[in-house]
Amino acid sequence: MIYQRTIKTAVTVTGVGLHSGFRVKLTLKPASSDQGIVFVRTDLENHPHIKCHPFLVNDTRLSSTLVDDNNIRVGTIEHLMSAFACFGIDNLIVELSAPEMPIMDGSSNSFVYLLDQAEVVEQNTKKKYIRIKQKIEVIEDDKSVSLEPYNGYKIKLGIKFNHPLFTKENSSLEIDFANKSYIDEISRARTFAFMYEIENIHRNGLGRGGNLNNAIVIDDDAAVLNTGGLRFKDEFVRHKILDAIGDLYIVGHPIIGFFTGYKSGHAINNKLLRKMLNTPESWEYVTFDSEESVPPGFYHI
Predict the structure, then answer these.
(1) Which of 83, 118, 256, 280 could, after both became Cys, cross-link 131 (CB 3.0–4.6 A)?
(2) What is the distance between the alpha carbons of residues 211 and 207, in angstroms, rounded to a whole number?
(3) 263: closest CA among 283, 242, 237, 285?
């Protein structure tokens, strides 16, 4: 991928926001080169625009939510951004009729399908990649995330929950996208919640649109309540990778590097992006003149 990408035709889907519970109409439209990912709240007067940027992620309670200076919100963008990363989307207008993205089935698979229907097309302007030159790291208590130099795109992630369903074998995963497909390995992994958490989530005004059709629910006896069970034996860590890919893509460019996370989440992922942007010597923009010169990992994703 040496040129920027958008979509050929507009596409629309409707769904429910995971946290707000609001019905939402989502429309993806083509955008011009160098425009970036722009969100438009069609339900508000004058249809305010918010350009996706890490410094606008100002609410990370169980999601990544953009909040601008006028308190205009665009919530739960990480799954959509993860699908954009899959296709290498650079420029797109995202219209939504509510303050939050539709959750669909709790994965990014519906957004992957939507982009496939819209037909991804290349533009005439070179795509800018971010290449990591020096390791950047954020550590908070027992949580950590880092980006370090790597000629490709690789992710290693570990999770830990005090619950019998989470074993050592299904709680860590490393994927190098030079030889693994995002669509096959990651896109179908769904978000999850524990039964004991749900009351508290609702008390905080979140999770109002959640149900067994858009999230994995785990009870205290280590049973998955969803019909059909898990899609992967390690679906939980795969979903955390899906989230991380989406959170990182909020920077607006593919990252050439190796992301490592342990007990990572939206807040610490965003702090890593902010630290990177505030440490200009740690990274650089690069473009490529031929497909052969693009590092492996940006085709299979």
Answers:
(1) 256
(2) 9
(3) 237
- Can you tell me the distance from the alpha carbon of 25 to that of 187, in angstroms, rounded to the nearest whole number? 21
What is the mean predicted confidence (pLDDT) over 148-152? 98
Residue 273: half-sphere exposure toward Cβ, Cα within 13 Å: 25
Phi/psi at 225 (5° precision): -80, -15
User: Residue 85, SS3?
Assistant: helix
The bridge status of strand 192-194 relative to strand 216-218 is parallel
First to last CA, the chain: 11
Which one from 19, 253, 266, 300 is the annotated catalytic residue?
266
Domain segments of the chain: what residues?
3-126, 129-293
Architecture of domain 3-126 in CATH?
A: 2-Layer Sandwich (3.30)
Mean pLDDT of the chain: 95
| 53 a catalytic residue | no
The verdict on domain 129-293 having CATH code 3.30.1700.10 is yes
DSSP annotation of 47 = -
pTM: 0.95
